[in-house]
Automatic annotation (TrEMBL):
It comes from Nesterenkonia halotolerans. The chain crosses the membrane at residues 46-65, 77-94, 100-117, 178-197, 209-230. Belongs to the 4-toluene sulfonate uptake permease (TSUP) (TC 2.A.102) family. This is Probable membrane transporter protein. Coiled coil: none annotated.
Length: 255
């Protein structure tokens, strides 16, 4: 097994807890796990270790939210996501660790800014005579393809597709449990697709699996805590947390 010091194990443990919570309660928070794992392991190798834990979290999320899924959104995203994964594989094989982090951070900040401006502008534009703002219009099919491509690309190169897809599903104005159920199925399939690519790049090996095996119980524990939180969180607080967590993760990747 790769030798890790106490601080590295603490960082990995915290990252595993974040994975479980992000899968069942706080989408977008997974980017914090990306940062924590990259601090404990080489950035490229950390993507493989994190991928296995994400799959564990995906399994619990799929089971918990199996009845609240928007299948139309998932069908729309299939092909652009696969294209993004393919492009991301090539980029991951050529780019340095620093380039990977900076590219993903810049993409996330750009999407966050676009989302905030869009929600603000369209709310004003569609405000009825009573002065109450209506919700912004949902993104169209072309926008969905763009989000799907970026989601596939970012999830392949840094396991950071969560915030990208969170921005899309937030724009689609999904209710909390539908949001979580749709995201659960989406990332379970996407993360499964990524496994052979990670193996082919030589990043997923037995040493990585041994490290991951120690962390799996923390993901499971956090997943059940996240389900408890999701049952009690309001729609407004949920959306604000998604935006804040995306911003924090993007800034951390850039720095």
């Amino acid at each position: 097994m790769v030798e890790l010091d106490a601080l590295s194990w603490v960082l990995l443990g915290l990252g595993a807890l974040v994975v479980g919570l992000s899968k069942t309660a706080l989408p977008g928070g997974g980017t914090l796990a990306v940062v924590l794992f990259a601090m404990a392991l080489p950035a490229r190798e950390s993507t493989a270790a994190l991928l296995v834990l994400l799959l564990v979290g995906d399994l619990f999320a799929v089971w918990m939210y199996r009845r609240t899924v928007d299948w139309a959104i998932l069908r729309r995203l299939i092909w652009p996501v696969l294209l993004g994964v393919a492009v991301g594989t090539v980029f991951l094989g050529l780019a340095s660790d620093g380039a990977v982090r900076r590219v993903i951070g810049a993409i996330l900040l750009g999407l966050l800014l676009l989302t905030l401006l869009r929600r603000r502008g369209q709310s004003k534009a569609h405000a009825p005579a009573t002065g109450e703002a209506s919700g912004p219009a949902k993104p169209g099919r072309i926008a969905g393809y763009g989000y799907g491509w970026l989601g596939g690309f970012t999830t392949m190169v840094a396991n950071a597709g969560g915030p990208v897809m969170s921005m899309y599903m937030l724009a689609m104005r999904l209710e909390v449990k539908t949001f979580l159920g749709t995201a659960a199925y989406f990332f379970f399939v996407v993360n499964l697709v990524k496994v052979p690519f990670q193996v082919g790049l030589g990043l997923l090996d037995w040493d990585t699996l041994r490290i991951v095996g120690v962390l799996v119980p923390l993901v499971v524990l956090a997943a059940f805590i996240g389900r408890w939180v999701a049952e009690r969180i309001s729609q407004t607080l949920f959306e604000r947390l998604v935006l804040v967590l995306t911003a924090i993760g993007a800034v951390n990747l850039l720095l």
